[in-house]
Amino acid sequence: MSVRDFALPDLGEGLTESEIVSWHVGVGDTVTLNQIIADVETAKALVELPSPFAGVVNRLYAEPGTTVQVGAPIVAFEIDDSAGAGPAETLQEPPETADAGAAVSGDGAAREGGAAGRQSVLVGYGPKIETGEHPKRRARAVVSDSAPGAEATPVQNTPVVERPRSTPPVRKLARDRGVDLAMVTGTGQRGLITRDDVERFAASGHLDVATATTEPTTGARARSDRRIPVTGVRKATAAAMVSSAFTAPHVSEFLTVDVTPSMELLESLKSTPAFREARLNILTIVAKALCVAVRRTPSVNACWVSGADGDEIIERASVNLGIAAATPRGLLVPNIRDADSMSLAELAASIGDLVTTARAGHTAPAQLTGGTITITNVGVFGVDAGTPILNPGEAVIVAMGAVRRQPWEYRGEIALRQVMTLSLSFDHRMVDGEQGSRFLADVGAILADPGMVLAMV
Length: 457
Prior knowledge:
The chain is α+β, with helices and mostly antiparallel strands and about 450 residues long. It has helices at about 110, 170-175, 195-205, 230-245, 260-270, 280-295, 345-360, 435-450, 455; strands spanning about 1-5, 15-25, 30, 35-40, 45-50, 55-60, 65-70, 75-80, 105, 135, 250-260, 300-305, 310-315, 320-325, 325, 330, 335, 375, 395-400, 405-410, 415-425.
């Protein structure tokens, strides 16, 4: 019997830390290979973390809510050496984590990588990163003794407190409402705290003492400030937007278009057998129009690269189309690879799956990198136009506004037409005003007359 540590993997491209959202196991639990043991939130996605070992959980190094550096141990397992588990590198790769990195260390030769001096790693996993830093904690961490079979030992005499059972969306709701989940009685299965439990508790006037203020009550309803920790997606979004706003010279343009022909096309397509089951909407049409317009102006599908030999602009060979999605965890921009090679039906299905997955919190980290151009749909909020900030590393972002029926000149007369405003922001280092204007005009021309696609392909 030996004890092996499992270190926090790099679950994306160059991520340095992740937050332990929840544990699915506890000390003393028996786990199987690839069993999901924890939910981990990175700056990009909520990831289910599988176990690299079959054994017994010996120690949990971090509580839920703790931010841990990549390469730091998060859990220890008691491994039955007689079971013939074999070296860590021979274990099967966990599902949906082919791009993840998870350093695994053990005692003695296993920790040092054996006689060859090579560190043991799981298939597809990277080497352990020595940061020399301790996990940053938002709450008091409680860890158990690492000796096999030992009782859990509080750190610095901190009492061991069982974390209330709830789901990530419910925990976010509780933070938003200023509710301390430790004070809420769960009515769900096996005591799970539900959204209704949180809403009822908030309605009763009880608030988390950590978020409450001393502001006097001005009526029957007490008011309080709300403190929201800047972590995970929100932290990454804030850093990326600040960097983009102060690095790329943004230029914004606007074009209002009569999209009645596109809306009529949508209704016509929905009645055909090929599109009857497709999740077809105006976003799909705009996405297709954008992909076609890129062919005439490839500079909008580019990135700026600075190197030792100077700066260069790389025009991408294909369109990896990012779709900005508002989720309970914040703004995510997953992308569709090779969107320009897809048919309209394929694009509709891909966008539908992408948005559904993002809102459920199951977007894979790989889907959040490598985008080349982005669409954000502010029209779903009833907004007509805006000046969107570029997704870092991209040259262009298009915002589509709400489709509204309004008076419009049509064939020499005034008629009620369905009208949309397109907003374009571009990086003026890569895209000149003429190029940006031509691209925006091309997208608008396709939406105003879908038959224009035939003239552009």
